[in-house]
Design goal:
Blueprint: E1 5-11, E2 15-22, E3 28-35, E4 41-42, H1 45-54, E5 64-69, E6 75-77, E7 87-88, H2 96-105, H3 109-116, H4 125-135, H5 137-142, E8 145-147, H6 149-158, E9 164-165, H7 167-170, E10 176-177, E11 182-183, H8 185-192, E12 200-201, E13 207-210, E14 216-218, E15 221-222, H9 223-230, E16 237-242, E17 246-249, E18 264-267, E19 273-279, H10 283-293, H11 297-305, E20 315-317, E21 334-336, H12 344-370, E22 376-380, H13 387-397, E23 401-404, H14 409-423, E24 436-439, H15 445-457
Parallel strand pairs: 1-5, 5-14, 5-15, 9-12, 16-22, 22-23
Antiparallel strand pairs: 1-2, 2-3, 4-7, 6-8, 10-11, 13-14, 16-17, 17-19, 18-19, 20-21, 23-24
Helix pairs in contact: 2-4, 4-8, 9-14, 10-12, 11-12, 11-13, 12-13, 12-15
Length: about 450
């Protein structure tokens, strides 16, 4: 076992990614990955198989490990620790009616935000527990313990014993108080109908457990919190992540309780807060256009750059599979301005503009709530590397954008947490920032104005 190597894991919606990192400087020594099943409800045991595959040969080389995982997912276990139901993931919207009920039971949107930091929507774990109670009562009755995805994988690393989590991921459940930094087990009980076990909350820099071989296991955290830790975010930084979902997030020293539901008041992985505005539709807006046009993402970007700003009048409201920001779980997509002259280039351009306008709405909501001026906008995620995004984002977001070099930032953030826990220091280790490029363009408010008209007309 090498004392200077740590392992960071990203157990995401799509796959498990593992990076072995030099704890002294953040240099990636090795990395591997393994796929996850598709769908919004999956057997969580598949994540354990993927973890074993992705960490094969890496785990014995590490002194410490932490898991970054997809937020919100419901892992309901019986007394033997076996799943009673497929895990419902963050992007499963079947619990949207349950969210409405739970918000009402907490006294309305503002009271809900004051209690748990956010207004509940279908993404939150508590709404999925209520759905389980109402639609799968036998499974609900057998539920003894409820974990988040990263908690479930972390316990697999240890092998047995008490489950553990961190305040960042816990703040996305709907039964954690961001004001008190503590569980509200009464809210979990109210959601599912009986008391359930919840994981122990570990401090951001704490060692949660050690394996039989001496491997130190950190608290782990949610994927967005891990990415913020990797990028060493500070006040004034806004990160826009373009993955399966779109996320605008910013570090805040103050707790957020937004009764409008536009901004979720999550905790972060350092002891501060990580308010964010999240869209359910991001890169898959481009995926759909690629399928319709029969091209890959690179060609879609080239087509988009061949069309003028505004796509010759074609505007898309891209809420194809429901939406979270704004909260429209039953929404579908709307195209407006199609004519007999609409070209493939226009269709491609409209997709990129819709994606970026949706994210610009999220950034505006976030900065309006925190009161922080965005002094730096960072674009991350798979679609952030597309040249069309580089060209169009500064004009639509109205500010220069910085694009860090592609990297596994969730896994790197988990690795930084592991190094922090291993070191025993009061602050995370100082690692060199990733190489980044900055892009500028003249702001073009007309595209956002057309998008806003369609958005508001179809609300």
């Amino acid at each position: 076992m090498a004392a200077d190597l740590v392992l960071g894991i990203d157990s995401s919606t799509q796959s498990t990614k593992a990076v072995l990192v030099d704890a002294s400087d953040g240099r990636v020594v090795a990395q591997q990955s393994a796929p996850h099943p598709t769908g919004t409800a999956v057997d969580p045991r598949a994540w354990l198989d993927a973890f074993d595959q992705a960490t094969d040969g890496l785990l014995p080389r590490a002194s410490a490990i932490s898991i970054g995982g997809q937020q919100h997912g419901m892992v309901a276990l019986d007394r033997a620790g076996e799943p009673v139901h497929d895990a419902l993931l963050w992007n499963d919207t079947r619990s949207s009616a349950a969210a409405v009920d739970l918000v009402a039971e907490l006294g309305g949107p503002q009271a809900c935000a004051e209690t748990v930091g956010s207004v509940l929507v279908a993404s939150f774990t508590s709404t999925k527990l209520r759905w389980l109670r109402d639609h799968e009562p036998e499974a609900a009755a057998r539920t003894h313990e409820v974990l988040l995805p990263h908690d479930y994988v972390s316990r697999h690393v240890v092998g047995s014993g008490e489950a553990f989590t961190d305040r960042g991921d816990a703040s996305g459940t709907g039964y954690f108080s961001t004001a008190d930094d503590a569980w509200r087990p009464d809210l979990a009980e109210a959601a599912i109908g009986h008391a359930v076990g919840l994981p122990r909350i570990v401090a951001p820099s704490g060692i949660a457990a050690k394996t039989a071989t001496g491997l130190a296991v950190g608290a782990g955290t949610g994927d967005n919190m891990a990415a913020a830790l990797a990028l060493d975010l500070g006040p004034g930084d806004v990160v826009v992540s373009i993955g399966t979902s779109g996320v605008a997030s910013a570090v805040s020293v103050s707790r957020i309780a937004d009764g409008t539901g536009s901004v979720t008041g999550f905790a972060d992985a350092t002891g501060r807060f990580l308010p964010m505005a999240t869209t359910m539709n991001a890169a898959r807006i481009l995926d759909l256009q690629c399928r319709l046009l029969g091209v890959d993402h690179g060609e879609l970007g080239r087509l988009a750059l061949a069309a003028p700003a505004g796509a010759n009048g074609l505007t898309i409201s891209p809420y194809y599979d429901g939406e979270r920001t704004p909260n429209r779980p039953d929404a579908t997509g709307t195209w407006a301005g199609l004519t007999s002259g609409t070209s493939r280039e226009d269709v491609a351009r409209a997709a990129f503009e819709a994606l970026l306008c949706s994210l610009a709405d999220a950034v505006d909501l976030l900065t309006g709530m925190t009161g922080e001026t965005a002094t730096r906008i960072l674009l991350v995620g798979g679609a952030a590397g597309n040249p069309a995004v580089h060209a169009l984002a500064p004009a639509i977001l109205g500010a220069p954008v910085t694009v860090p070099a592609p990297g596994e930032y969730v896994a790197l953030g988990a690795a930084r947490q592991a190094a922090w826990a291993w070191s025993g220091s009061t602050e995370p280790p100082s690692w060199a920032p990733p190489h980044a490029e900055t892009y500028t363009a003249t702001p073009n408010p007309l595209v956002r104005e057309a998008y806003a008209r369609l958005r508001d007309r179809t609300s």
